[in-house]
Amino acid sequence: MAGAAPRLHALAGRVLGTPLPVRLRAWDGSEAGPPGAPALVIRHRRALRRLLWRPGELGLARAWVAGEIDVDGDLYALLDLIAGFLWESGDSGDSDEGASRRGLLALARDPAVRAAARELVALAGPWPPPPPPPEEARGRGGLRHTRRRDRVAVSHHYDVGNDFYALVLGPSMVYSCAYWEPGGTLEGAQRAKLDLICRKLGLRPGMRLLDVGCGWGSLALHAARAYGVDVVGVTLSREQAGHARKRIAEEGLTDRVEIRVQDYREIPDGPYDAIASVGMAEHVGAERYREYAEVLHRLLRPGGRLLNHQIARRPVADEAAYAVDDFIDAYVFPDGELAPLGRTVALLEEAGLEVRDVDVLREHYALTLRAWVRNLERGWADAVRLVSPGRARVWRLYMAASALAFEHNRIGVNQVLAVRTTPDGESRLPLRPRLWGG
Questions:
Q1: CATH number, domain 147-435
Q2: Would you say 21 and 37 are in contact if contact means Cβ atoms under 8 Å apart?
Q3: How confident is the model over 114-127, as a mean pLDDT?
């Protein structure tokens, strides 16, 4: 009987209707597929049980996180090759049992693949499938984007250890798209991004800046140090807040920068002269975005500026059918949602803000993610020690796949500058604001 890899390669071609463009290397040592192509290594047939039980992206992701599949060769190249037909077969986000029934019933109803399904079941081995890897998000009962559930979601992503984030992000501890120049470094690009934000906001000594989703405090520190402003930073992550406070104390800026563990909906002490929200709005959710925009409008002084830095997805024909990516939702950003740029701009304006500038930084995020992946791969042994093998694998897959998504224009990232005009309609922006001089 042929080895597992040739059988699986033939099965995949029959089910997909086209030859699989990658090599397969199976647990029994057999190989099949185009010579020289990157290889998908199936270390254990448990991976097949995961795919049969949860067809599509989540089953594949669980096998990856558990270490049951791996890549031999260029990860980016393999993801590019398989994205077109494996990722598009993702799930609808409901229960494992319901999804597995639909996947298996679809196979059973299609005469062309019934034989392939029987052979795959035989290769997969005894049922049931193993439980999901422990890195999968837990404890998300109740309505989405309540304050309690948002705290749980944020903790899953950010409270995994500041040392791990330092390894991935580098000394800047900035977890958002950098602003690159040709031949630049990650640290230089992150400094340039922080300064660009401060200049767009027109910061001057004595102003009050609110940093919504302040992370590890890098923007707050830069604004206080370089522009002489007083800063309040808010985050739901206790680990981030603790790290940020330590940095602020070390720089002697505790009288200028305050870091709070606080939901943006609970900030009581506006108005502020300027607000920055960088990489935070993706956590808000579609049903809460209008409220988010209204809260920021209320917290902003008339004539003040808002800088909203946010990842966007491409519009789809049926927006009501948009579903959150299964892998990202289960392992990376629980309850995170992306919206098209046009919808974000519309909601900001519906809340009373005037959008004055949109800066598209899509290619910059691809460069940033590739730099983070290099950091992770160079420090792999330390990353595994600091978190877990599964968590490190989540991050490697997530960041590499995201880099490709930015490069291929499946997602983008934009800095939207908006103002709360004065009662008589003044924006208090210069006539040529893109000089960003104040």
A1: 3.40.50.150
A2: yes
A3: 79
The three-point CA angle 65-285-392 to 5° equals: 20
* CB-based contact 326:93 (threshold 8 Å): yes
What pLDDT sits at residue 289?
A: 95
C-alpha distance from residue 436 to each of 150, 204, 309 (Å): 34, 13, 16
- Cα→Cα distances 435→196, 201, 429, Å: 11, 12, 11
Q: Whose CA is closest to 230, among 202, 199, 256, 201?
A: 256
Q: Count of CB atoms within 10 A of residue 259's CB?
A: 26
CA distance from start to end of the chain? 74
Contact assessment for residue 398 and residue 328, using Cβ atoms and an 8 Å cutoff: yes
> Who's near 115: CB < 8 A, 6+ residues apart?
none
Q: Which two tokens stand for residue 23?
A: 């090599």
> Quick check: helix, strand or coil at residue 230?
strand
| Main-chain dihedrals φ then ψ at residue 186, nearest 5 degrees | -60, -45
The pTM of the whole model exceeds 0.85: yes
| Domains of the chain, residue spans | 4-124, 147-435
Phi, then psi, of 309 in degrees rounded to 5: -105, 115
Query: What is the structure's pLDDT at 113?
Result: 60
Angle at 225 between CA 273 and CA 174, to 5 degrees: 85
Is 412 strand, coil or helix? strand
Q: State how far the Cα of 137 lies from the Cα of 272, in Å rounded to an integer.
A: 35
Token pair belonging to 321: 């059918």
Which of 217, 227, 209 has its CA nearest to residue 173?
A: 217
How does DSSP assign 326-386, residue by residue?
HHIIIIISTT---B-HHHHHHHHHHTT-EEEEEEE-HHHHHHHHHHHHHHHHHTHHHHHHH
Report the C-alpha gap between 437 and 219 in whole angstroms: 18
Give the separation between CA 357 and CA 405, rounded to whole angstroms.
Answer: 24
pLDDT number for residue 30: 96
- Rg of the chain, C-alpha, whole Å: 24
Burial of 128 (0-12, 13-18, 19+ CB in 10 A): exposed
pLDDT of residue 394 exceeding 80: yes
Q: How far is CA 215 from the centre of its chain?
A: 14
In three-state secondary structure terms, 114 is: helix
pLDDT tens for residues 229-266? 999 999 999 999 999 999 999 999 999 999 999 999 99
